[in-house]
Write a structure and sequence with these properties.
single chain, alpha/beta, TIM Barrel, Lyase, Ornithine Decarboxylase, Chain A, domain 1, 8-stranded parallel beta sheet, binds pyridoxal-5'-phosphate
Length: 350
């Protein structure tokens, strides 16, 4: 039986990369492809990114980077989330740059026995408190990294951090802290090939945070990083449309073959709707496997060949993932990334 399908328009991703790249013209463009490219399909998105001229990819875990190397991807890759079981030697030997957030990671990388010298990017916590060396221990962290570098155990190539995006002023303050931390590290003898800080929001709104490289995720998929401006406002195109077949329609109700088991919001606000054959159909109840919607009186013959659009770019009157995020009181990232493996992906616009 056919179920929900996520249609990914790779042309939209390509368009968004060009548009965002133009906003940070002096910075390298790293495309963040964590979580299966935010649910859009890792390998297809990486190929699109390469064609669109991105300079590198951010993969979160080194295992995803190793998977890309095995698929023949040759550009720089950056992984920054590591566990006690991370194979740092394998990552270094596949030339994956490693974000380092803690002393134990620094020591484990230095002791990995890799046959090539691991390249590390030192992370300073500039206020997000989601990893990185705390400011009071930053000098000690840098000093230890330089000691290990002198022993030939690793090479320090970059300093980086991540912004909280809670407000423009908070991000600006973090940017200043980052700049100060870099100066402090340089005074200790560090030399950085690259400095990187900004993600989607900073690419659009905070040129001060562009530095040598920007790490861009959500905006490249056509979802606004801001609550008060939509992708359309920003000239970005939503890349994913979610459709589902109609299972049954009678007595003014229809059930469609998508539910929270596919990753859609289980309890959206009262205003939530889908589009069936061009008509707005309010959501009545989301179940694990099916969703019940109300059919307007004006709807024609709704049946097994009817198409239901849950979200997309709005071209057919449907809501966007951003709108679903409002209905679900979450962020657009969760709407697209949360789709489960049960949702089939198909691709166009390559
Ligand atoms: C997810 C992530 C990004 C991309 O952020 P967006 O807001 O999606 O552009 C960049 N850097 C790091 C460290 C991340 O975890």
């Amino acid at each position: 039986m056919s179920r929900a399908t996520a249609h990914v328009d790779l042309g939209a991703i390509s368009h968004n990369i060009q548009a965002l790249g133009a906003l940070a013209p002096r910075s390298q463009f790293m495309l963040a492809v964590k979580s299966n490219a935010y649910g859009h399909g890792l390998h297809e998105v990486v190929r699109t990114g390469l064609d669109a001229g991105v300079s590198s990819f951010g993969v979160l875990e080194s295992t995803a980077g190793i998977e890309l190397r095995k698929a023949g991807v040759d550009v720089p890759l950056f992984a920054w989330m590591h566990g006690q079981d991370t194979d740092f030697a394998a990552a270094a030997e596949e030339r994956i740059d490693l974000g380092v957030q803690t002393f134990w990671q620094l020591e484990a990388i230095a002791a990995s026995g890799a046959r090539v010298v691991p390249r590390v990017h030192l992370k300073i916590d500039t206020g997000l408190h989601r990893g990185g060396a705390d400011q009071p221990r930053w000098a000690e962290f840098v000093t230890e990294a330089l000691r290990l570098q002198a022993l030939g155990r690793l090479e320090v190539v970059a300093a980086w951090s991540h912004l909280s995006d809670t407000s423009h002023s908070a991000d600006l303050e973090s940017t200043a802290l980052f700049g100060a931390a870099v100066e402090e590290a340089k005074a200790l003898g560090a030399e950085f090939e690259l400095l990187h800080l900004g993600a989607s929001a900073a690419v659009i709104d905070l040129p001060e945070a562009h530095f040598d490289l920007v790490r861009v995720g959500i905006a490249a998929y056509g979802i606004s990083p801001f609550g008060d401006r939509s992708a359309a406002d920003l000239g970005l195109r939503p890349a994913m449309r979610l459709s589902a077949p109609v299972l049954d329609a009678r007595h003014g109700l229809a059930s469609i073959a998508v539910g929270y088991g596919d990753g859609i919001q289980s309890d959206p606000d009262a205003g939530a709707y889908v589009i069936i054959d061009g008509f707005v159909a309010p959501v009545i109840e989301v179940g694990v496997d099916e969703t019940v919607v109300a059919l307007p009186e004006s709807a024609g013959q709704v049946g097994a060949d009817s198409v239901c659009i849950v979200f997309g770019d709005g071209a057919h009157g449907e809501a966007t993932a951003e709108q679903w995020a409002v209905w679900g009181e979450t962020v657009g990232d969760e709407i697209v990334t949360g789709l489960t493996g049960r949702v089939r992906r198909d691709f166009s616009g390559a």
